Amino acid sequence: MARGIVESNRYMVLGTADDAGAPWVTPVWYAQSDYRRFIWASSPDRRHSRNVRARPEVSIVIFNSQVEVGSALAVYMSARAEELSGAELERGVAFYDAATQAQGLTRRWTLDDMLAPAPYRLYCATVSQHWVLDPDSSPDDRAEVKL
Description:
Blueprint: H1 2-8, E1 11-17, E2 23-29, E3 31-33, E4 37-42, H2 47-54, E5 57-63, E6 74-83, H3 86-102, E7 121-133, E8 142-145
Antiparallel strand pairs: 1-2, 1-5, 3-4, 4-7, 5-6, 6-7, 7-8
């Protein structure tokens, strides 16, 4: 179930906090690898990007918001995020570009798109834990899953 949710959706909600602990959430389009690495492009000036620099611990949720009330399925994750650099950035850009092409997006991504003075940077969240809502228990109970 968790794999299906990750594979069938394109946006994740990224939860971050600033250095004082003030929370912030934002949707980002993602490319994922092995259900453990979630990569997205964003401006380094956006609030969530600044928060990742200040406090790399993040939370993620992926769900389909178009389903009937009471039938939602979601994957919740704890992760550590970072801006990619060096060889990791080069591999990440190639992976991100391939994922966007596989989704039929026309924009191509190159290393130059992710380096100053370009407006984007590439970020990666590495997941340490996954949960899903447990369909056999009371509402809002989560069950940890291994992907």
